[in-house]
Amino acid sequence: MAGNDLFTKLYAQLGGDATGSHDITLNGGVVLSPDTPYSSNGLGSWEFDGADDYATIPNSTDFDFGSGDFTINLRANVSSWSDQDIVGKYDNSDSNVRSWLLFTQSDGDLVFGYHDGSTVNEHVVTWAETTDEWVYISVVRDGTDLMIYVNAVQAGSTYNIGTDTIKTVTTELYIGRREGASSYFGGNIADIEIIKGVAVTPSVPTTPQAPHTSAVLLACRYGEESQGSAAGHELTTVDGMILRASGPTGFDGAYEFNGSSHYVQTPSSADLNMGSGAWTIEAFVYLDTSPSSSEYPIISKWASSQRAYELAIDTDNKPELLVSSDGNWDGQFVKGSGALNLSEWTHLVGVYDESALYIYKNGVLGNTFAYSSGVYDSTAAFQIGVLTDASRYFDGKIANVRVSKGIARIFDPNDPLYITTGNYEDGFEPPTGPYIYSNLSMSGVINNFIYGIGTTSYDFLALNPSGIISYFRSRVTYEGQYESGPPNMVYGSGVYDGSNYNVYFYADSDRTYSTFKYSSPNSSGDHVPILGSGVGVGMSGHFSYDFGA
Predict the structure, then answer these.
(1) Burial status of residue 5 (CB atoms within 10 A of its CB: 0-12, 13-18, 19 or more)
(2) Predicted confidence (pLDDT) per residue in 243-281, tens digit
(3) At a CB cut-off of 8 Å and minimum separation 6, what does 503 contact?
(4) Tell me: the pLDDT tens digits for 105-137?
(5) Would you give the end-to-end CA distance of the chain in angstroms?
(6) How many angstroms separate the CA atoms of 364 and 347, rounded?
(7) What span, in angstroms and rounded, lies between the C-alpha atoms of 213 and 201?
(8) 354 contact partners, CB below 8 Å, separation of at least 6
């Protein structure tokens, strides 16, 4: 499903436990970071500050290995390997509650320690420590052999674990800390996978992988990648945020908010200031309770004298979209006509198209409000589930938050929210799964111009797996008709046929840019504009592309 393109400024697709089995609590202020071990993907990592950040998963027999085979895989990126507690079921303060732990010593040596019911045993290996880059660490028990691998190469010797049974204890699984200790992991962790009952020889994956068929956990994944941003946004979790293993149907999980202290935020960014142009914000929400004295905030850049926009649930359980053009509250909002039910997932979308505000619930239009003043460029943080300025908190779950700048998605033929009839009243089908990430570079040649000739340099191309180019952006220097004009920013879209891509694009006579979408060729072989203006004052051309990762 397309949807992450040049206009996507933030896309917080949750990645908790990809097996869908375990809820995860993020303690301290674990950052959901776009920093990733993969060169091209939609999955990031969890960033721990080394001071008070860690994650916990409730006790489960999934993490009790006994005398059987197991495999632990993970990615880590740190500036120092000294005294790093990575993952385990091990209470430092209670000798009766110790099962196993993967950690490093003060000298950086990797250690897998385990309790056999009478004593703690340790397999210690020296390795060529690498800092400030991603490494792939694996621990494998294969019968009587216990091995530690770094980047799929065995480190040190094989440890004879014999027939030892690793002690079963009743305690949480800790990530980034050992229970009862005051030291914390500092750095990033991604893709902790625990496989029970199977010894898997490690190989370093180059792309995000689905869980192994015997995996009981695949955690530390986070999908915030904004193709239209200068860089992906780091989202900080606050006060024990819970990542639920279950989300809307077709999605991996959700944030759970307690209605009193939980929230997620990222610092203010120009990416998230909408200005005078069109925009779209959306999320799935699940209400545990109804708001009483004030609204439940979902998505917002909204603080005293710094109000811009807010998507919320009012005290009558109806969704509302609020905006401000000057940072102050002046009563500009649109409110849906239907109330949300408790304890069920609902898809909400707020849209501004430079002439009106629209709000949709499960793809059905709730209301419109005539408005054309844009929104204030606020310095407030972008927040999910809270208005900290007003101490208002969401009670329930939120998933699949997407912020799109410069486009009203309901009028975009390349987007899942597109209303095919072109009539905003007709609505759309809500998404049934995460939006697909794409990240390809390209180069090309323009020729066959109707008006003059030109040269171009390409900034970005988003191509989905079906071969549909969502958007591209190019700087075009005109010769001939626009010989004296400055470079124009031109947007287009169309179909890549495997070797070539044909498109019409147009520039207004004053050399400003517009956004256009085009259909397949008509019976005469011409491309017909679906949406756009300036026909006859621009140029058309034939593009040839070379694609690269």
Answers:
(1) buried
(2) 998 889 888 789 999 999 999 999 999 889 999 999 999
(3) 492, 493, 494, 518, 527, 540, 541, 543
(4) 999 999 999 999 999 999 999 999 999 999 999
(5) 20
(6) 10
(7) 14
(8) 276, 277, 278, 372, 374
